[in-house]
């Protein structure tokens, strides 16, 4: 079977499937001719030639536009945003106004592939398309200064954002959902809207993408009305972007240099001090692409058995495999289905047999690429295969980066409850790639944030206050995100160093979990109804309200904690769970199956205030039941 052309051969000579090589020069010329014709028809102008010289305005540029082009210092203007935000229409007019070339990245992809984007999605899948899209945008940025309209998902890729930061200026055309829907319904070539409920899909995409789009250099409202008004708003924003003596170009260059520096090395390193078993947690962008060199240092001479799920494989596996190849590390792959149901005996057997079948030895490494489910399952397997192999965590969800990948807890679920079968088994390295969070669904990101909030509530009131002030920056994937992850990891590392196997203080890390695990168990670990971080969020709020009921903390503290969780979009009450119908006795029974039960007595982590948690052993079941009954009666 003929393999599909890699990224449609978009860099260098293109190739249609089964066709002779395409000379890129005529292709670019044809595309330029097509765009010029479309521009002429749209604007009813003639002679719309564009200057191919970087930084030199073309014949349509007035003196104001010419000055702006010079200030850009050769940088391209890159329009980002949702489908229907007007990137192509506005981009053509903006380029015409500035006397620059205009290019539509989606049109370039279709031209090079010889098929529509919808056909590419149908034939090769979204992961294949995204890889080609990244390459096209990189090529367009590297050729010359121009105005570039990108596809809706292009800016979600960390590598593309870095490239734009180095060579361009990003402009987000932000539109309301109603405006977007009216525009896209006029066309039927949107593969991501090819389902029966386009509005629900659009709203989901907005929820996922807007926090990332917010990282663009400029945000411009794209409303109904003349496109020229949006063009004028862009030009005005660019003119006012840097009014000081250093000028727009140097200001953008400084920002791009900072972005490049951030991408070239880990932003933070946290050490988990466990004597001879101590290990590092590296936090920053592009760590998956650098994994080979880090693993080679942490586990010299080892081969690697990668454990991941089928969903994450498309997004992150190629970069990991390439880095292992570059480091000369032999590797094999074991893939499991996504979701909590994979923390089972069946999948545990699959992983163990897969690792052994790949001829992995005791000194080799099991590498967990994924979220908490993959990490827990792979870690438990690593703890028992050949009586213990090396273990590397590469967490790709926020929840896993701040919690489950750190500290050595590994487990699978039992029919009787969550994480009841497992072991304490420390990794030798954790690589928390913040770039992997760029495309994380908004719901999963929020769920992970609940674990970050937990660290503030446990013993760091100052950190909780910082989160109240900075949580929007965390959600926008700004520098606050790295800071929040590093702080959370450092907090957990300190506790683990004091109490590795949860004989004392480590139990504090379970704040909210006695409630949360019971709720997860009663929803049968159905992620559509409740994911782990949401259970933790409800559990945190319940723990603070229960503490207030027992007189340990003020009602104001409980309300403050709940208010922050709700501001971040997290559930805070049991009846926020869709279809909830269990009563207080069922919840109490589920709690008795929790690992924190000792000799039949319930143990809770309660609080005397924000950042003042404590271990409460032997809490009377009658008090818990009365509290649950009141919670459910609200």
Count, helices: 24
Helix content: 40-55%
Question: How large a portion of the residues is in β-strands, by DSSP E?
Answer: 5-15%
**CATH architect. name of the largest domain:** 3-Layer(aba) Sandwich
- Global mean pLDDT: 83
Number of domain modules: 3
Category from helices, strands and their pairing? alpha/beta
What is the 3D shape? globular
- Compute the CA-based radius of gyration: 27 Å
CATH superfamily membership of the largest domain, which one? Answer: P-loop containing nucleotide triphosphate hydrolases
Model regions low in confidence, pLDDT < 50 over at least 5 residues: 1-55, 242-247, 253-266
Write up what this structure looks like.
Helices cover 50% and strands 15% of the residues. It has 634 residues and is α/β, with parallel strands linked by helices. The chain folds into 3 domains: 20-262, Rossmann fold (3-Layer(aba) Sandwich); 265-440, 3-Layer(aba) Sandwich (Rossmann fold), CATH 3.40.50; 493-633, Dehydroquinate synthase-like - alpha domain (Dehydroquinate synthase-like, alpha domain, Up-down Bundle), CATH 1.20.1090. Strands 8-9-16-13-12-10-11 form a 7-stranded mixed beta sheet, sandwiched between helices. A 5-stranded parallel beta sheet has the order 4-5-3-6-7, with helices on both faces. Strands 1-2 form a two-stranded antiparallel ribbon. Strand 1 (14-15) and strand 2 (21-22) form a beta hairpin. Helix 14 crosses helix 15 and helix 17 packs antiparallel against helix 18. It starts with 13 loop residues before the first strand and ends with a helix. The model is unreliable at 1-55, 242-247 and 253-266 (pLDDT under 50).
């Amino acid at each position: 079977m003929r393999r599909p052309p890699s990224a449609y051969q978009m860099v260098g000579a293109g190739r249609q499937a089964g066709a002779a090589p395409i000379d890129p020069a005529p292709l670019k010329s044809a595309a330029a001719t097509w765009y010029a014709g479309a521009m002429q028809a749209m604007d009813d102008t003639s002679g719309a030639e564009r200057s191919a010289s970087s930084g030199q305005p073309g014949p349509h540029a007035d003196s104001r536009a010419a000055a702006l082009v010079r200030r850009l210092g050769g940088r391209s203007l890159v329009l980002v945003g949702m489908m229907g935000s007007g990137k192509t229409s506005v981009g053509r007019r903006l380029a015409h106004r500035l006397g620059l070339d205009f290019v539509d990245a989606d049109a370039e992809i279709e031209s090079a592939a010889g098929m529509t984007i919808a056909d590419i999605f149908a034939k090769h899948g979204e992961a294949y398309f995204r890889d080609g899209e990244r390459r096209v945008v990189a090529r367009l940025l590297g050729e010359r200064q121009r105005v570039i309209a990108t596809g809706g998902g292009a800016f979600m890729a960390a590598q593309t954002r870095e490239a734009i930061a180095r060579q361009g200026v990003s402009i987000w055309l932000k539109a309301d959902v109603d405006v977007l829907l009216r525009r896209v319904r006029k066309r039927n070539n949107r593969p991501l809207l090819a389902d029966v409920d386009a509005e629900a899909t659009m709203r989901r995409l907005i929820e996922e993408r807007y926090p990332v789009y917010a990282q663009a250099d400029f945000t411009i409202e794209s409303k109904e009305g003349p496109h020229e008004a949006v063009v004028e708003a862009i030009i005005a924003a660019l003119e006012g972007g840097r009014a000081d003596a250093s000028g727009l170009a140097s200001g953008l260059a400084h920002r791009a240099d900072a972005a490049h520096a951030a991408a070239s090395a880990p932003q933070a390193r946290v050490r988990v001090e466990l004597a001879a078993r101590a290990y590092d947690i590296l936090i920053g962008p592009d760590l998956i692409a650098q994994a080979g060199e880090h693993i080679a240092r942490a586990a010299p001479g080892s081969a690697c058995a990668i454990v991941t799920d089928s969903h994450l494989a498309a997004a992150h596996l190629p970069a990991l495999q390439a880095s292992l190849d570059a480091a000369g590390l032999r590797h094999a792959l074991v893939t499991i289905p996504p979701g909590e149901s994979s923390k089972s005996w069946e999948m545990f057997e699959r992983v163990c047999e897969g690792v052994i079948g790949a001829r992995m030895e005791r000194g080799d490494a099991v590498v967990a690429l994924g979220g908490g489910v993959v990490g827990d399952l792979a870690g438990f397997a690593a703890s028992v295969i050949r009586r213990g192999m090396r273990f590397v965590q590469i967490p790709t969800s926020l929840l896993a980066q701040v919690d489950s990948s750190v500290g050595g807890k590994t487990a699978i679920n039992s029919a009787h409850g969550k994480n009841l079968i497992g072991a304490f088994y420390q990794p030798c390295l954790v690589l928390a790639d913040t770039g992997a969070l760029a495309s994380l669904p908004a719901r999963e990101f929020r769920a992970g944030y609940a674990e970050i909030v937990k660290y503030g509530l446990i013993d760091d009131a100052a950190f909780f206050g910082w989160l109240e002030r900075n949580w929007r920056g965390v959600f926008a994937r700004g520098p606050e995100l790295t800071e929040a992850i590093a702080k959370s990891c450092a907090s957990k590392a300190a506790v683990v160093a004091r109490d590795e196997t949860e004989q004392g203080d480590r139990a504090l890390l379970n704040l909210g979990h006695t409630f949360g695990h019971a709720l997860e168990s009663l929803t049968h670990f159905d992620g559509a109804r409740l994911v782990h971080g949401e259970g933790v969020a409800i559990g945190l709020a319940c723990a603070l309200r229960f503490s207030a009921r027992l007189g340990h903390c003020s009602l104001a503290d409980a309300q403050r904690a709940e208010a922050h969780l709700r501001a971040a979009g997290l559930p805070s009450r049991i009846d926020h769970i869709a279809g909830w119908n269990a009563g207080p006795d069922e919840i109490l029974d589920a709690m008795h199956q929790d690992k924190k039960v000792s000799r039949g007595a319930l143990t809770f982590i309660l609080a005397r205030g924000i950042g003042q948690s404590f271990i409460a052993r032997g809490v009377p079941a009658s008090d818990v039941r009365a509290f649950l009954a009141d919670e459910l009666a609200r």
